[in-house]
Structure formats: C-alpha cells, structure tokens
Design brief:
Length: 230
C-alpha cells in the first residue's frame, strides 16, 4: 500500500486511488470543494491549504503525487501580493521535499500558452525533479491533455503520449516546438497592426500577461487619446 498526496478538489480522483488499494491525503484551497468531498464520505484525509504557499507535510511522507487540472492556477496572480513564479517555485520545492526518493508525481494541467507549460516544467526541474512533459492527443483541440511526469531521484521510463490514430508518433517536445513557432507567427502578424491602436495595445498587454507581468486591466478608456491640457 502506498501513500499518495492528491490535489483533490471534491475527491473524485481520490476514489480511484482508494480503489487501487492506496491511502491518500488531499489538499485544496476551496473549503466548498472539501465540503463536497466530506459529504461524499471519501476515505482520504482532507487538508485546507494553498499549494502556492507550500505543502504543509513532513519530508519523505508520500510515495507519489497526483493532480488533475490544478497547477495551472498557480500561473495566475489572483491577488496583488501573488507572484506566480515564486508561488510555482514554492509548490515544486515543497512537493519535492515531501516525497520519498522513489516517488513519482503525475500532474495533469491545462496551460494557457507554451510559455506557461515551459515555466512549470523549468521550475519542476529547478526543484530537483527529473522527467518532463507528455502531451496526449497533441493534434486535437478538445482532447489535448498536458502531463508533467516527474521523478524524485532517477528518471524512469515515461509513458508514451496517446494519439488519435493509436500510434505514438508525435512526442511532446515536437508539439512544444510547434507551439513556439505558432507564437512567433502571431507575433509577426501583430506587427501589421497600426502602432498605438486599440488592437495593438491589447495585443501587447495580452503578450505581457502570458509572460507573467503585471498589466493594467482593460477598460473602455484603453487606447483612447488623453485630452490636451491647456
């Protein structure tokens, strides 16, 4: 029997872990989601906490980690005090610490851009993890899923990505490169926009948001010329 840490939400994925014969501890930032998990009488232990502030567990406590659609929220600055890069770094550092040397973490997520995927992957490596990114159904808009498959000590064999044709011919690195090329094409197209126009300003602000920079919110005054002072 293994002990798993789970970024749990309402505990749906915890049921699968329980059925596999393992114990688990779930953590979530939402009290409402944990209340749903309690009402469903899940067998795992539940902890209220913000993973961006670090995981409150002792070193070497868990044999594995699972997350479904959670870590991409670390890329958002929901409060003025939030620094996305610092929060991501704190999460991966604390995750690495609370896992055993033979542990593996599988973190499924939905990045807004290739920049976010690269940021999460690089911060995981900075924390000490080996492994990397796997993309299932890379050519599908709806079915595409991103996974960080991370090992604590040595990099073991990673599962092959699923593809629509059943053959695993397209690897994750290839898909990431294609994403970068697409972003370069978008950047070149943006140069055709009239400089200082509303569209040009919004494109520049959106690009800055993807780079995790602080950007003022759009309003009805965005792009308008200020009245001349006397």
């Amino acid at each position: 029997m293994k002990r798993i840490i789970l970024l749990c939400g309402s505990g749906l994925s915890g049921e699968t872990v329980t059925e596999a014969g393992h114990q688990w501890v779930g953590i979530d930032i939402s009290q409402a989601m944990l209340s749903v998990a309690q009402q469903r009488e899940v067998e795992g232990e539940l902890v209220l906490g913000d993973i961006g502030c670090g995981l409150p567990f002792r070193s070497g406590t868990f044999d594995g980690a699972i997350s479904v659609s959670a870590i991409q929220w670390l890329c958002n600055a929901d409060r003025a005090s939030h620094n996305p890069v610092a929060r991501i770094r704190t999460f991966f550092t604390s995750l690495y610490a609370c896992l055993t040397r033979s542990a593996r973490a599988v973190l499924q997520f939905y990045p807004d851009s290739v920049i976010q995927a690269d940021l999460l992957q690089s911060e995981a490596a900075r924390a000490g993890f080996s492994g990397g990114l796997i993309i299932d159904f890379p050519n599908s808009t709806r079915a595409k899923k991103y996974f960080l498959v991370l090992d604590v000590s040595t990099c073991r064999n990673r599962p092959e990505p699923l593809t629509e044709g059943g053959s695993n011919t397209l690897s994750a690195p290839t898909s990431v490169v294609q994403g970068r090329l697409a972003e370069i094409r978008d950047l070149r197209q943006s140069k055709k926009l009239p400089k200082h126009s509303v569209a040009w300003i919004k494109h520049k602000k959106e690009r800055a948001r993807k780079q995790m920079k602080e950007v003022a919110h759009d309003s009805k005054y965005t792009g308008r010329k200020r009245p001349q002072r006397l």
